[in-house]
Amino acid sequence: MIFKRKKKDIERLKVSFGKEKDESFCFEMISKYFKNKNNAKSFHVLSDKTCNDLDFEELFMFVDRTSSKVGQQYLYQTLRCMPSDSMTTDLNEKLIGELTDDIDFRVKTQMLLEKLQKDNVYYLPSIFQEEHLKAPKWFFAVPLLSFTSLLTILLLPFRPELFLLLTPVFIVNLGIHYWNKRNLYQYVDSIPQLLSLNHIANQLHNEDSFKEINPELNDAIQVINQVRSRMSFFQLEAKIQGDFEAAFWAILELLKTTFLLEPLLLFGVLKRLNTKREEIEEVFSFVGYIDSLISIASLRHGLESYCIPTINNNETDISGTDIYHPLIDGCVTNSIAVKDKSILLTGSNMSGKTSFIRTMGLNLITGLTMNTCFAKCMCMPRARIYSAIRISDDLMNDKSYYFEEVLTIKEMIDYSESVTPNLFLLDEIFKGTNTVERISAGKAVLSSLSKNKNIVFVSTHDIELTDMLEDDYELYHFSEIITNRQIDFDYKLKEGRLKNRNAIRILQINNYPDEVINEAIALSKQLDEIAEMNSVNI
Prior knowledge:
It is built from 24 helices and 14 strands. The protein is of the alpha/beta class.
């Protein structure tokens, strides 16, 4: 029976390689490790704002092919934090190649990792990231009460009157025992999983291929093993809590109450674990790292097209061939090459401008964090990424759309003055204000953002900006084809500025009244004439 189940699991893992997960995602738990980790040494940490703008959670659900909750949390951390160098890239690619080509090796590794698949594994980071409970000041009485109980029971056959002492001591112990239950429940999920994590890490580290990741990991494993016997108690507790029908439960509870075993073991273990935080995180990261590499291998295997990008640490050139958005089914690919300039996109709504901006942002993220781009080839700088795409009113704090946009773009201007290259992604800059001030402020801001080796991708409906910014920006556009009463989008990026305006024509084919269309056309001509006269006067 066990053999058949194992054979079935092996076949399942082989078939699922390269495919998306079919499960729910709890991002509150998945992001737990990332949110509590000190990421100060990272080159760049993606903000919640940028993640929202670029549909980061949807990207993660597509990318995540991990087998364990440890790997899932580690992969989330990896995608949110861009590294400052590519020192581990060669090792990553070597291991990804082995895990892809050696099916038996990969499946064996995944079966080990799946032992860390239960939801309570999500609580593992709390052991090395969060403050542990501290024993109260009166805790010195606990070992005394425990010893009193033991001594009284041993002497009871010789001095039966000691039963009068044992009874009140037991009542006090009973109160302490159940006071401690609430403390115990905080760790009954995480500590047993630490034992499993350490055991699995030891097995993985015995593989020659994985030793290179952390040659000194055995030291950390052995340090955790020093607390192993005491932590084993929590595995028993977790099992009993899931199976109250166990015949010895009542007897065990009586023994634990009499001798106050739970509080003594709990606070003893916590004190020891508090000094072993670095070793626990080292083991956690080792296992998560391996699982994330399998996830990347599976992702690549399932893609029709991908590439390993070229990272230019000292340049700001950005280029790509047949780039696509991984979350858009049948996405039309586009190619671009930019040197010493930013990108200004024009085009009508739904033509593909914003999707292309997001495509560039997502590829920069996955290129710098997973060494994987959704393109045939890609060259990019090591740049920080900031965005202003989805902006909304903050009614709770009495902030209008325009004011929220002003604050977001002000942050970009501050970041743009750093010596580190930045990629700024903007959609319809200052669309919350009037035309004259929008164009004026937009030109000034976009000129400022493009300095200091920064790259800007911005979309706009304001054709006037194309003339004002052509020295600093390469002009591209998306366009649609209107035939009879039908609108067709090809979603292809085209060089130059958009020459045709079709907004009124789109109103017309959607059966707007003739008087509305005629008035709109007449006013459009008048405004064009005024704009032309003003440009001549200037």
